[in-house]
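Minutes, project huddle
Topic: does the predicted pose make sense with pyridoxal-5'-phosphate bound?
PN asked that the exact inputs be recorded in the minutes so nobody has to dig through chat later. Recorded below.
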Amino acid sequence: MASEASVGQGHFIFDGCDTVELAKEYGTPLYVVSETAIRERLREVRLSFLEKYPGSYAVYASKAFQTLEMCRIVQSEGLGLDVVSGGELFAAQRSGFPLDRVIFHGNSKTPSELRMAVELGVGRVVVDNLDELAELDRVSLEFGRRTKILFRITPGVDSHTHEFVSTGRIDSKFGIPLDRRVRDSYVGAALSMRGIELLGFHFHVGSQLLENESHLKAVEIAISFMAEVKKAYGFETAELNLGGGFGVRYTDADKPKGLAYFTDEMMAAVTEGCRSLGLALPRIGIEPGRWIVGEAGITLYTVGSVKEIPYVRTYVGIDGGLPDNPRPALYGARHEACIANKYACEPSRRVTIAGKCCESGDILIRDIDLPEMEAGDILAVFTTGAYNHSMASNYNRLPRPAVVMTSKGKTRLSVRRETFEDLVAREL
Ligand SMILES: Cc1ncc(COP(=O)(O)O)c(C=O)c1O
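Predicted holo structure (tokens), as shared on screen:
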């Protein structure tokens, strides 16, 4: 939740804005994203990482929440951008983002996406497999370029997060395991290619991590891999990207410790590891996504019904759900919420918030204590800034919500609501 959330006339105030008025003005469901909170986080990246560790870089992981406006905010605060598809790259370009500050990711990039990346001159391509490496070399030579790459490695760390957001294990669709045979086929091949300039390695151990142990373990493994590669090929790693994954607060049970808790300890581990193995200190990068935008966003819904099943539970039906926030159905994710127009009222009833889709699994929040509710109330669900708008679908032909940006009491429409016409616009 944005740090400036407060009570005003019994209404929930978010970043200086009355959320009941926002629902009235822009309709629901509505994504409300605080520019104030996003800029606070981006500045924290600058102060506690970029300025503290000269030569380091940070890219914002667009997959968490990407709009043209978000790209421009990120650019204005001096970070780069991580994109993972032609669509995200296109949006970065359309927003005017300097493409040499873009890192192109993905475990299954298509030949046309690789072509686009080379043609637009992205700063780095993070290569995931040998087919991609060969295609990238071919396209780069065709354009007379040498594309700078990092290899995505899987350090074999089992991060303590949901299976679907755990990415650093050996049995993962992402990245390259650090087996010697594999090492030789990748590093050996890249060093012999004229269209490829290998700079180093990248890992991302998982998402929504609240402890730094997986990150630190991965640093240790990556550094010893760098030493092996140096011994075998004389290749000194110039760049090491430590990924993202820094957790945020969804419920009271989550106790996020801040960015420096991860980055300071990882930087110390990199420095010490390189010193003890006689390696030159590489340039270090990070890629936070959720940590930048997660708590900066809320979603507003209108309550349509309150249905009590005696001795079982009370279902509160809302005008959105799974299509605008698939996280609870996908990961069993938990969110907290309030009734925006009864913010001063005490919780008095345990209810289950049900989305409007034809799926029994479309339950937004199971068993939450809220004040007495009725049709027409406005429900505000917290920490929806990351992986909501970017993961939204049109299931059941629900138009995707608008995005309103707030900034200390000011609001502006950033993405308009989809219309029924939009829903059929591609159909012939
Ligand atoms: C390669 C890579 N970098 C960065 C991120 C951002 O992760 P988070 O939003 O948890 O910081 C992801 C998320 O999946 C990723 O796959």
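Observations noted during the meeting:
- The CA atoms of residues 244 and 288 lie 4 Å apart.
- The chain has two domains: 6-34+294-424, 35-291.
No decisions taken; revisit at the next huddle.
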